[in-house]
Amino acid sequence: MKPVRALALAALTCAALCAAGAAQAGGSSGASRFCDRGQPLTAAEQDRLLRFAAVLREELADVGDGVALVSRSGLDLSRFDIRYSHAALAWRSDTGAWSARQLYYACDESRPRIFDQGLAGFALGTDDPALGYVSIVRLPAEAIAPLRPALLDGPRVQHLLAAKYSASAYAFSVRYQNCNQWVMEMLAAGWGELPDGDDLRERAQAWLRDERYTPQPVQVGSRFLMLASHFVPLLHLDDHPDEDRSAMQLRVSLPSTVEAFVHQRYPASTRVELCHDDERIVIHRGWTPVAAGCKPGEGDQVVSLRD
Questions:
Q1: Which of 106, 107, 210, 254 could form a disulfide with 35 if both were Cys (CB 3.0 to 4.6 A apart)?
Q2: What is the rounded distance in angstroms from the CA atom of residue 133 to the CA atom of residue 291?
Q3: What contacts 70, CB < 8 A, 6 or more positions away?
Q4: How many CB atoms lie within 10 A of CB 221?
Q5: What are the boundaries of each domain within the chain?
Q6: For the chain, the helix, strand and coil percentages under 3-state DSSP, each to the nearest 5
Q7: 172-209: per-residue pLDDT in tens?
């Protein structure tokens, strides 16, 4: 695959994932193809994903009224060694209902928005209904205590939202933002106990720098990258440092970098990975990835979808 085409595919993936809430939030009559599902789900596919969501809820049952980091797969980006493209923060309301608070791109408005989505909708948002992955990171009590009030603080949540979206947003610029960068800045606002204010994003990024948040650079591998922003909507490069563009690497927040930061800061955090194919759901515990193709390994739990 040519480098620019590959980058375009990655950008389309994150754009589509971050726009997944648009239809749930009120339709997308004027939406571009970035917001449209390729094919509607069949009854069998919808049933499979709803059963997958039920297992996801079961895994969160013992979290109490806390907060968990959840991530979802999208298009097949294994060629870039990327399994997860979209992260959110899941929380349970006083009524016991779980929601995933996340950034999505509102196509009708041409701007990013914060959207609360039920866990079933989160699972249904996967691009491939035949093979999907969800990662859950449970946080210890000392991490939840400062994070939950920040996550439920409407003004702080909105002040962390950028006016412009970019799938390739630089992790230390306030010019743009992608879905995973909003999660990172939300963690910073909570764990740094940062008060509200118009400059909250700047202070959140400064806190992340001080805490040595270092997203691993995405290696692009071609100078044709500079052309991509001219023809790929929702992809911008003008926020990245010149030295990064010259080195053909982008420091972008991805679910893997969010999880790595959480694990480093709170080693007591635990992780479980859920995946499904046409026949089964696999539940894999630990910080090592479940096998590609959703193949169960030693110690993994398997739930049949053939029942």
A1: 107
A2: 11
A3: 56, 87, 88, 89, 90, 100, 122, 134, 135, 136, 137
A4: 12
A5: 3-139+217-234+247-304
A6: 35, 25, 40
A7: 999 999 999 999 999 999 999 999 999 999 999 999 99
